[in-house]
Amino acid sequence: MFADISHLIAHNPAAHHYGAAAFDADADGLTEFFVTGFGFPNRLLKWDGAKVRDTAPKELADEKHASIAAAAGDFDGDGREELYVMGADTFAGPKEHPDRLFHAGADGWSDLFDRKGNRLLRNLMSGRSVAAIDRRGTGRYGFFVANYARPSRLYELADGTIRDIAPAIGLDVSTGGRGLWVGPLVSDHSDLFCSNEHGPNLLYRNTGLGTFLEIAVEVNLADAGEAGRGVTALDADGDGKLDLAFGNWEGPHRLMLRQPKGTFKDRATPAMALPGPVRNVIAADFDNCGTEELFFNMMGEANRLFKYDDGLGTWRMHDIGDALEIEGFGTGACVADIDNDGRLELLISHGEQTPQPLSLFRSAEASANWIRIQPLTRHGAPVRGALVRLTAASRIQTRVIDGGSGYLCQMEPVAHFGLGRAAAVESVRITWPDGANRTVAAPPIRHTIRVPHPG
Q1: Is the pLDDT of residue 345 over 90?
Q2: 365 pLDDT tier (thresholds 50, 70, 90)
Q3: CA–CA distance from 194 to each of 37, 144, 261, 336 (Å)?
Q4: What pLDDT score does 90 carry?
Q5: Which residues share a beta bridge with 317?
Q6: CB–CB of 24/30 below 8 Å?
C-alpha cells in the first residue's frame, strides 16, 4: 500500500515529536502539517513544489516550550483558523508550560492567552488531546481540552475574552482523558466522544441547544476497564450510519457498529482487536479505491492497516508496505493532501522513548479518480464537524470533517473521496453543525470543491 517518501522532508533530524494538526497556516489555500515538539521546536511542514520544508515562524516554533497536542479551528469567527497547542512538560498533574492559543494577525502569530484578561484562564494541567467543536452551529469554534485526572475545559470567546464554559454546561469532568472525536454521531449536531483510561469513555450528545447529555453507557460505548487511545468515525458497514473505531492501549481494539435501535456493538475481527501499544486510529481512503482503510499507529510495534472486503463483508488486514515501521516509536499520525494532487499523505511522528525522524508516506497504488469537498462556515473558514455524503455509481460514501483530536492529532478539514472506477459524481450533500444543508449536483471530479454555508 504505502511508499516511503520521507526523503522529501528537507530537514528531518531525530527528535521527540508528539501530536500533529493539518490546517492552512498561511491562508494560501493549501494545507500544512503542524507537528508538536517535546524539548524540540514545533514544526510547520509545507510542500514547496519539490520538498517539504519547515516554515514555522518563531512564534509557532516556540522552541523553549514543550508541546504534546494540537488542533485548529476558527475561534473568533474571522474566517481563519486559530491553533491550540497543548503544553506538556509533565505527563500528570500541574505543569509549568501552559497551553497556547495562537492567532494569526497582521503582525504575525500571537498567543491569545497572553492578552489582558486571558492569562488567568490558561490551562496549567497536564492533558493529552484537544478538539475544535462548534457546539451551537454559529461557525465559531471552542476548544475542548481533555486533561488527565483533572477537569476538562471548553474554551470559547465571549466579548473578546476567553472563557472556560465547561463547568456551566457539565463538561468539567475529571477522568483519564485521552482521545477525542467531534461530529454528528448520535444527533444532527456536533457530538463529543471522549476516549479515556482509568474510567469509562464518555459520549456527549448535543441537544441542538449547545448543551449536552452524557449517554455512553446507554449506547454501549463506555468500554470501562480499558485504556482508550485514538478514535475515528466511519461508515464501516455501508449502511449509511456513522460507526466508531477506537484503540485501547494493550487491550482489545474496537469497531463499534451502529445498531438499528441506536446502540453500538463491537464487530472488530480478531486481527483488528489484537491488543497492542496503539496511539492513533485513522480512517481514510489512501488509495482512492472508493472505500476507506483503517490505519492503526503503534508505538514500538508494527503498524497495522485494514481494508473492507466487499465479497466477504468483513475487514481484513492489508499489506501496509513501507509504513510497517517495526522499530518506529510512533506517537502521532496525521493525514492531509499537502501537495494538492488528490492523493493523501500520511505523516507519522515519533520519539517518546527515543528521538526519531518524522516519516511521510503515500499510497503507491492511487491512480483512481477522486474528489475533495471543503465546506465553509458562514465566516469563510473550514467547517470542522460537518457531515458530507457523496453519491457516485449509485453508491453512497460518508465522511465527517475532522474536529480532532483522535489522540494528540487532528486531520485536514477536507472530505476526501476516492472514486475507484467511477468517472462521475452524481451529487454531494453537506450538513453543517447548525443543521443547514446543501446539495451540489454533478460536481467536477479531480478537484477540491469549496462550498459556502447556505446562509
Answers
A1: yes
A2: confident
A3: 24, 10, 22, 23
A4: 80
A5: 306
A6: yes
The pLDDT value recorded for residue 357 is 98
d(CA 172, CA 168): 8
Q: Above 70 in pLDDT, residue 423?
A: yes
**How far, in Å, are 39, 294, 304 from residue 321 at the CA level?**
31, 14, 10
Q: Are 335 and 345 in contact (CB under 8 A)?
A: yes
Give, as one character, the DSSP assignment of residue 109: E
Reduced DSSP (H G I as helix, E B as strand, rest coil) percent helix, strand, coil of the chain, to 5: 5, 45, 45
3-state secondary structure 201-254: CEEEEECCCCCEEECCCCCCCCCCCCCEEEEEEECCCCCCCCEEEEEEECCCCE
Residue 135's CB is within 10 A of a number of other CB atoms, namely 29
C-alpha cell at 207: 441537544
Secondary structure of 279-342 in HEC code, one letter for each residue = EEEEEECCCCCCCCEEEEEEECCCCEEEEEECCCCEEEECCCEHHHCCCCEEEEEEEECCCCCC
Across the beta sheet with 278-284, the strand order is 278-284, 293-298, 304-309, 314-317
Query: How many Å separate Cα 206 from the centre of its chain?
Result: 19
The pTM (predicted TM-score) of the whole model is 0.97
Is residue 404's pLDDT more than 90? no
Q: Is the pLDDT of residue 127 over 80?
A: yes
Q: What is the pLDDT of residues 262-298, one digit of tens each?
A: 999 999 999 999 999 999 999 999 999 999 999 999 9
* Residue 53 backbone class (left: φ over 0; alpha: ψ -120 to 50; beta: rest): beta
Q: Is the pLDDT of residue 405 over 80?
A: no
Return the residue matching grid coordinates 522499530.
327
Exposed / middle / buried, residue 18 (Cβ in 10 Å: 0-12, 13-18, 19+): buried
The C-alpha cell of 6 is what? 520521507
DSSP character for 167?
G
pLDDT band per the 50, 70, 90 thresholds, residue 304: very high
The whole-number pLDDT of residue 366 equals 66
Task: Give the model confidence (pLDDT) of 347-364 as tens digits.
Answer: 999 998 899 999 999 998
Q: Which residue has the cell 516509536?
A: 329
Residue 67 DSSP SS3: strand
- Can you tell me the distance from the alpha carbon of 382 to that of 377, in angstroms, rounded to the nearest whole number? 6
Cell 494528540 maps to which residue?
A: 408
Please give the span between the terminal C-alpha atoms of the chain, in angstroms, as a whole number. 41
Query: Pairing relation of β-strands 369-375 and 387-392?
Result: unpaired
User: For residue 342, what is its C-alpha cell?
Assistant: 488528490
